[in-house]
C-alpha cells in the first residue's frame, strides 16, 4: 500500500532575525482532516512559522510541500494567493461595508452567481448564521463575527487552514462553544489545520496532535494525551499545569526523598534529579493524633504538612502546604468542596505512577 501523502509538510524551516534563530529547523507533517496545534510560550516562533507557510514571509532555508508538491524553498516560491491556504487570525477583520454574504463570498469571485450563493448559504448554515446572510458585520456579536470569519476562510475550500490564536479575543464561555463548533466545521471540510496557540487548554481541546515549541524548535510532538502524560522535561510539565518539584540525588538507581524512594532506572549514582508531579496527584490525609496514613507500596511514605492557603475554585480546591521536613511549599488540588483551614495539619502522599523523574544537568540551573 502506498504511504499517505501529507496535506502539509514542512521540512527544516529556519528563520533568523538580527542573527538570532527564531525558527530553528522546524519540520512537521499534517494529514487532511487533521488538526495540529503549534503550542508554546510567547515569542517561541509560532507565528513566524505560520507566516512562512502562508507565504507572507520567506524562510532562510527549508522547504514547504502541499499534497507532496513543493510550494516553497529558497529557489522556488508559489505566491501566497496561489497556495490554497485559508487564514484566520485573532484580529480577523470582516469588511465592514460588505454584507455577511459578500464577506463569506469574497474569495469566490470566479464562481458563477448561483453556485457562489449556494456555497455561501451552505457555510452560513453550518456556522449557524444563515439568518444573517444579508446583515452587516456591525449587527453581529464578536462570536458571530468570528464564525463569519471562519466561513469566509473556508469558502474557497482551502487545502490548509492556518489559525493564529483565533479565539483569544472572545470571552471564556463563548470561546469554548466557538472552539467546538469550529472544530466540527473544519473536520467536515477535511482541511488540514495548523493552529497556533500559547494556551495548553486550547491545544488539548482542539488538537489531534500537539507540537510543543520552545526557543524556535519543536521539542516534543504527539497526541495531547501522550504529550501531557509523558512530558519531555520539567518545563513541559509546568507548561501544562502547576508542578511540584522534589530535589534528590540518585543512589543505586533510587532517589531518596521525604516521600520515600523513587525509581530512577539507568540514572548514574550521584546524579541530581527533579521529581516532578502535578497538584492533582497529591493525596491528602487527616492527621490522626500525630500519625499519618499507613504507607502503601504504591504511594510510599506520607509527609506531614500544614495548610498555608486554600482556595475554592469551583470543581476543585487548590491547597498550598508548607512541608514539615524543610519548610518548602507543595500544591495539591482536591476535588469538590473540601476546603481545609489554614493551620490544619495533614499528611501528603504522592501518586508514584504519576511522577516524573528528570535528571538535571546541574542543580544551579534547575
Ligand atoms: N519582523 C521581525 N523582526 C525582528 N524580530 C522579529 C520579527 N518578527 C518576529 N520577531 C521575533 O521573533 C521571535 C518569534 O516571534 P513570533 O511572533 O514568531 O513568536 P510567537 O511564538 O508567535 O509569539 P506570540 O505568541 O507572542 O505571538 C520574537 O522574539 C519576535 O520578537
Automatic annotation (TrEMBL):
A Pfam family recorded for this sequence: TOBE_2
InterPro entries per the UniProt record, alphabetical: AAA+_ATPase, ABC_SmlMolc_Importer, ABC_transporter-like_ATP-bd, ABC_transporter-like_CS, ABC_transpr_FbpC, Mo/tungstate-bd_C_term_dom, P-loop_NTPase, Transp-assoc_OB_typ2
GO cellular component, one term: ATP-binding cassette (ABC) transporter complex
SMART domains attached to this UniProt entry: AAA
Statement: the UniProt record of this protein carries the keyword Iron: yes
Boundaries of every ABC transporter domain copy: 8-240
Record keywords: ATP-binding, Cell membrane, Ion transport, Iron, Iron transport, Membrane, Nucleotide-binding, Transport
The protein's name in its UniProt record: Iron(III) transport system ATP-binding protein
UniProt source species: Sulfitobacter brevis
Amino acid at each position: 500500500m502506498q504511504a499517505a501523502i501529507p496535506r502539509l509538510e514542512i521540512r527544516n524551516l529556519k528563520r533568523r532575525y538580527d542573527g538570532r534563530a527564531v525558527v530553528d529547523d522546524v519540520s512537521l507533517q499534517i494529514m487532511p482532516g487533521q488538526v495540529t496545534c503549534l503550542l508554546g510560550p510567547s515569542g517561541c516562533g509560532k507565528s513566524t512559522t505560520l507566516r512562512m507557510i502562508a507565504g507572507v514571509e520567506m524562510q532562510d532555508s527549508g522547504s514547504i510541500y502541499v499534497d507532496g508538491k513543493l510550494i516553497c524553498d529558497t529557489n522556488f516560491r508559489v505566491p501566497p494567493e496561489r497556495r490554497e491556504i485559508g487564514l484566520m487570525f485573532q484580529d480577523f477583520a470582516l469588511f465592514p461595508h460588505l454584507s455577511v454574504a459578500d464577506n463569506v463570498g469574497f474569495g469566490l469571485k470566479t464562481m458563477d452567481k448561483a453556485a457562489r450563493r449556494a456555497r455561501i448559504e451552505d457555510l452560513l448554515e453550518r456556522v449557524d448564521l444563515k439568518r444573517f446572510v444579508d446583515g452587516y458585520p456591525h449587527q453581529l456579536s464578536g462570536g458571530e463575527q468570528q464564525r463569519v470569519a471562519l466561513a469566509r476562510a473556508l469558502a474557497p475550500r482551502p487545502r490548509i487552514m492556518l489559525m493564529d490564536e483565533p479565539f483569544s479575543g472572545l470571552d471564556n464561555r463563548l470561546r469554548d462553544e466557538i472552539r467546538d463548533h469550529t472544530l466540527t466545521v473544519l473536520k467536515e471540510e477535511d482541511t488540514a489545520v495548523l493552529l497556533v496557540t500559547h494556551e495548553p487548554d486550547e491545544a488539548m481541546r482542539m488538537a489531534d496532535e500537539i507540537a510543543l515549541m520552545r526557543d524556535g524548535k519543536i521539542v516534543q510532538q504527539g497526541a495531547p494525551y501522550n504529550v501531557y502524560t509523558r512530558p519531555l522535561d520539567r518545563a513541559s510539565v509546568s507548561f501544562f499545569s502547576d508542578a511540584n518539584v522534589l530535589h534528590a540525588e540518585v543512589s543505586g538507581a533510587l532517589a531518596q526523598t521525604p516521600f520515600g524512594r523513587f525509581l530512577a532506572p539507568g540514572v548514574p549514582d550521584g546524579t541530581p534529579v527533579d521529581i516532578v508531579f502535578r497538584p492533582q496527584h497529591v493525596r491528602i490525609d487527616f492527621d490522626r493524633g500525630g500519625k499519618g496514613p499507613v504507607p502503601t507500596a504504591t504511594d510510599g511514605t506520607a509527609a506531614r504538612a500544614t495548610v498555608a492557603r486554600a482556595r475554592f475554585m469551583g470543581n476543585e480546591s487548590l491547597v498550598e502546604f508548607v512541608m514539615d521536613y524543610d519548610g518548602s511549599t507543595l500544591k495539591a488540588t482536591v476535588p469538590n468542596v473540601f476546603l481545609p483551614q489554614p493551620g490544619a495539619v495533614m499528611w501528603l502522599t504522592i501518586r508514584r505512577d504519576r511522577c516524573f523523574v528528570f535528571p538535571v544537568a546541574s542543580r544551579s540551573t534547575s
